[in-house]
User: What shape does this take?
Amino acid sequence: MLALALGVALPAAAQDSPGSAPTIQAAPEAKPTAKRNHVTAGKPGMVKNAIESRKAAAKPASAISHANKSAPTPDALAGVPADEKLAIQSALLWSGDYTGAVAGEDPMLAAIKNFQKRNKAKITGELTADDRARLVAAARDHEQEFGWSVVVDPATGVRVGLPAKLVPVARDAARGTRWSSAHGEIQVETFRVKTTDLAALFEKEKKEPSVRKVETSVLHADNFFISGMQGLKIFSVKAQMRDGEVRGFTMLYDQAMEGIVAPVMVAMASAFSPFPEHSAPYAELAKPVEYGTGLIVSSLGHIVTDRKLTQGCQVIVAKGIGDAERVADDPESGLALLRVYGARKLTPLPLALGVAKPGDVALVGMPDPKDQDGRKPFSEIKARLAGDAIELREPAPMAGFSGAAALDADGKFLGMAEMGSAMLASTAPALPPVRLIPAQTIRAFLEARDVAATTTASTDARASVVRVICVRK
Assistant: This one.
């Protein structure tokens, strides 16, 4: 029954803004075909809350309209600091109040009204100072107890709620990313499959691995849900199709862990969005082998990249150039300087003078090898620059793009893209999920380390983009 709490929430939580996908029909409430002995040794109320959430999620989703493309409503939390806004959204997702846009309404506004209704308060759509403080405190409690945060998986573009303390180990998976507990009792795995045949993938997921015994399976025109037993573990799979690809996630856990996992399942069901229209921080993975992008800034072999990418690396390689050494880094700017010795015929990046202006930009980077188009040495993602925030035009996978070059419509280098991670417990202002480190900041960073920067735009900036590979323990 708790597995269903995770599954039937897809119709309500799959999208978070109008105009992103066709209307989704709610999955019918289905009963398991086999009984299981459940261990419910969690906190009092866990099972009750999961059942109530399942019932709420099973209501018809006819009121959810993704075809309404009217002008967006004002931000329900306008003027609220970004870090506080993130914490409020996280708390509303955990409680199940944040369920997506209804009839064109701003999803945050709808969530606030749900919160007020559930607490039998006057439904105004505006949070009082006490309400905000209570939600922020709840978010911090969940973060401290479970390591809970709502993030985007760079490998798939899926937004997911992660209980990092329950699943601290991150690894590459065949089609996405897998988070797990130390001994695999709990596993969360995202996936992204390029296909237009949803029914075929649905049947494949029911049969693979072969030890799966399906108890519930529901297929709709653009999404599906499967749950049951996989060996001695309970599993649930949620997926949705859009624009020739299917995105989803699988949750797997020991039966004995159900009492602990129950509240997390409900929160994850609310947070899950395969094609999120609103940006969220990116999951910080620190995988054994991590791919990113570097920018060649001198003919002597100097390369700048995202500082986080280079942390804890035993070996750093600039593909096609050679082994690299980290010679400097700067926590304030977020930059790291690498040096490849003995390199020849390198094309330095032109660090033009001037200030980046708001407008359309292209992020030029080296995607994860699993997603790279073999015909091109790099890929480009369309985005828009607003201040120091880089807003993606569409929810695209960003694995490998940390350190990517941001170019304007004329191909002029504006700066480097840095992917931010969630810090709910931080009191510092929250950074945008993707932010621009301006060219002038990079130039100052290099000058402070006696690296002469090229300022003339005589070459294509794309020629200076290189893949950086970090190998950790």
Notes: The chain has nine helices and 21 strands. The CA atoms of residues 77 and 101 lie 15 Å apart.
